[in-house]
Amino acid sequence: MSSSTEREIPVQADAPAPSESPAAALRSPLERFGLQGQTLQVANWLAVVVGIYLLITAVNVIGGGFKAATGGQAADLFAFASNPFVALMVGVVATAATQSSSTTTSVTVGLAAGGLPMEIVVPMLMGANIGTTLTNTLVSLGMVRDKEAFRRGFSAATVHDFFNLLAVVIFLPLEMIFGLLERSSSWLSGQTSGTDGGVVAAVFAGIGTVVDGVTEPLANLLESVTAFIPEPWHGIVMIAIGIGLILAVINVIGRLLKVLMVGRAAKVLHTAIGRGPLTGIASGMVVTVMVQSSSTTTSLAIPLAGSGSFSLRQIYPVTIGANIGTTITALIAAFAFTGLEAETALQAAFVHLLFNLYATIVIFGLPPLRVIPLRGATWLAGLAAEKKVWAAVWVLGVFVALPLALIFATVIL
Amino acid sequence: MTDPGYPTPEGDDRLPPRSIEEELEEILREAESSISALRKDLAEQRLRARQHAEIDRLEEHLASTRVRWSEVRAFFDEVIDELRRRRPVSGADDPTGTSAEGTAP
Questions:
Q1: Which of A4, A127, B23, B97 measures 20 to 30 Å from A293, CA to CA?
Q2: Does the distance separating the beta carbons of A11 and B47 come in below 8 Å?
Q3: Does residue A199 contact residue A360 with C-beta atoms inside 8 Å?
Q4: Environment class of residue A357 by beta-carbon count within 10 Å: exposed (0-12), middle (13-18) or buried (19+)?
Q5: pLDDT per position as a tens digit, A157-169
Q6: Backbone region of residue A103 per phi and psi (left: phi > 0; alpha: psi in -120 to 50; beta: other values)
Q7: Range of A166's domain?
Q8: ipTM exceeding the 0.85 mark
Q9: Is residue A125 part of a domain?
């Protein structure tokens, strides 16, 4: 977060508060049980560990459920989504609906391990990147009563939208033509989990075996409890249980980590002030890993920009770092499997990581591309500040109408 | 404008003699440049102080990273109001008087 004064979004000493809402405080969900002080702190950490355990178990359940539901014929059953644009839009809509890219990526990792073809997995994960930008865009709408704060906040939100849309515009065609992400992630997962991957693969396999050994009993229990349901409904119920569990766990973990990590996150951000964009990317990445949610980091940027204290150019790298940081969840989820399933799950997780790394290197690394999200966001925020209907058109168009129209056009027509 | 009484370094015939006025102008330019740099530094320091103060409110900001649907609804209410406010203006130019103004809720 360089502290140089920027021209696009002028810094104002007497900028108004971004929101008229009363100051909110972070509260742990465990406070309702009367816990406080050190006991609460310990309980929060234990709950995070249990949450991660349940997350990995849920991913395991989804993988098993998907395999059972499709009877190993996932490719045939998901032929409707083999069109990459449909798979992309499924990722957008699923993430926008759950407001959590971590949920979509974890579920996708489970589905990949269960046999979902990689040509569907890759666009779905790209779609998750677009869908997750809805959350901070909706958060920025809360500033609508203050025109200047709204302009700054909306530009900080949509710079993420533009960056992630541009990343898909560049990398989806490359994927369709050359299989760039599928090939590179396949190589990387082979190196880290294959039988001939050497020391790294042995370490990953060891961790995977331990994690699988711990999570397998609960996954088996859930499977046996629902075993009376005939297939394919049994598999579908297992997928539904897994998705429900992931949604709940991601929500609770997110709330707990905010409470636990607020001090450390503040230290990271304090350190980043006055430094360059690479530090901004690193700080966004670290904060996102801490809170396990890119939308938390990118939504955090809205009041920072809206207050006028941080310029759009300073917020931009932080949101890009959030894209990279959020890929840790899919990597954790991949440890739900062993053997060949582990290799496929890890490949899906690496697709998400590599996509965001490539996008950062290409878009942020090349000055002509780097300015596109900045200019797009500044232009759109200027329009939206004058006529709010443009903000509504953007939100409803990009996140609702366009995905549904594309899915409808491809599947129904 | 050369001051005939202005002393020049003995034996240094490469530099033309400078007037007091030129010397004063140069001193003034340097002073202005220093003041400008100081003002820039001061602005930078103030900006950083504001940024640190904003990060000090991180807990409050983190608590507001969730979507508040009441605010989203209020936004769309404002959009609808904005659209309604614009409709009579377009209708006022309608000479036939058959605009949507009369039928708008």
A1: A4
A2: yes
A3: no
A4: middle
A5: 999 999 999 999 9
A6: alpha
A7: 37-411
A8: no
A9: yes
